[in-house]
């Protein structure tokens, strides 16, 4: 039986050290870090933030704070704590859907908190930082990419300063599929009409090992790994 637990700070740092060694052999270097796709980082808040602080130190990982992103599905108390502590790292919030009904279907953990409360926390963070908050939106064909979804997303965000990253879903089980090109184009056009904010389609590698952003399922082993933060 595999034990589920949070990673220790040193285990998180070790992942970067291993990645740095691999890319060094290829003549490249690590210039950023993203806490995403390995569980909910804010459920392991103290260790994750400690790891990020070590990564940014000149005597540690020497990665610029602005190049370190910590993602959450919307844990409001932790978002507010992150804001009040004035952490220098970038915050990303994974929405999944703009309504509570769809979020409950797609991200049960996130659905415990009304999405309006999540956006209120995002707004507080944006105001405190005087910067845009990154919102990640996993696009699923036939589920959350029609015009009503675009309108709901625009209404939810309002004038909160954000950058909306659209990510194609990856699902090894075959249950969920990314939108077809025409479906995606109509969704982008609807967003352009209703939402006057920057929208970016984000590339996500790693689908061949169930590690891409937007992955909603995986093998038993990888699912356990992803719950570690």
Unreliable parts: 206-212, 216-229
Helix content: 40-55%
Global shape: globular
**Class from secondary-structure proportions:** alpha/beta
Please give the largest β-sheet: 6 strands, parallel
| Terminal Cα span | 19 Å
The DSSP helix count reads: 8
Radius of gyration: 18 Å
Strand order of the largest sheet: 1-2-3-4-5-6
The fraction of residues in strands falls at: 5-15%
Mean pLDDT: 85
**Helix and strand element order:** HEHEHEHHEHEHEH
* Strands, total number: 6
Detail the topology: elements first, then pairings.
Blueprint: H1 9-25, E1 33-35, H2 45-56, E2 68-72, H3 76-84, E3 90-94, H4 100-106, H5 115-129, E4 133-139, H6 147-157, E5 162-168, H7 181-194, E6 199-201, H8 220-227
Parallel strand pairs: 1-2, 2-3, 3-4, 4-5, 5-6
Helix pairs in contact: 1-2, 3-5, 6-7
How would you explain this protein's 3D organization?
The protein has eight helices and six strands, in the order H-E-H-E-H-E-H-H-E-H-E-H-E-H. The protein is α/β, with parallel strands linked by helices. A six-stranded parallel sheet has the order 1-2-3-4-5-6. Helix 7 links the parallel strand 5 and strand 6. The chain is globular, with a radius of gyration of 18 Å. The model is unreliable at 206-212 and 216-229 (pLDDT under 50).
Jot down its keywords:
disordered C terminus, 229 residues, 8 helices, globular, 6-stranded parallel sheet
Quick gist of this model?
The protein has helices at residues 9-25, 45-56, 76-84, 100-106, 115-129, 147-157, 181-194, 220-227; strands at residues 33-35, 68-72, 90-94, 133-139, 162-168, 199-201. It is α/β, with parallel strands linked by helices. Helix 6 links the parallel strand 4 (133-139) and strand 5.
């Amino acid at each position: 039986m595999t034990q589920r637990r949070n990673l220790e700070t040193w285990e998180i740092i070790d992942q970067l050290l291993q990645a740095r060694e691999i890319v060094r052999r290829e003549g490249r270097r690590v210039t950023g870090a993203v806490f995403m796709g390995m569980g909910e980082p804010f459920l392991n808040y103290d260790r994750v933030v400690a790891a990020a602080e070590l990564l940014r130190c000149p005597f540690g990982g020497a990665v610029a704070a602005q190049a370190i992103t910590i993602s959450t599905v919307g844990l409001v108390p932790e978002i507010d704590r992150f804001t009040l502590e004035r952490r220098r790292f970038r915050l990303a919030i994974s929405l999944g859907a703009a309504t509570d009904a769809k979020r409950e279907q797609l991200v049960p953990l996130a659905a415990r908190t009304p999405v309006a409360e999540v956006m209120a926390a995002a707004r507080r963070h944006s105001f405190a930082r005087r910067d845009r908050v990154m919102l990640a939106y996993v696009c699923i064909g036939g589920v959350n990419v029609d015009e009503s979804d675009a309108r709901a997303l625009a209404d939810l965000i309002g004038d909160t300063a954000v950058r909306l990253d659209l990510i194609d879903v990856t699902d090894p089980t075959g249950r969920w599929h990314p939108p077809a090109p025409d479906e995606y184009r109509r969704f982008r056009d609807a967003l352009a009409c209703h939402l006057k904010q920057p929208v970016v389609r984000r590339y996500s590698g790693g689908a061949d090992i169930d590690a891409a952003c937007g992955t909603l399922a995986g093998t038993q082993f990888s699912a356990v790994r992803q719950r570690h933060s």
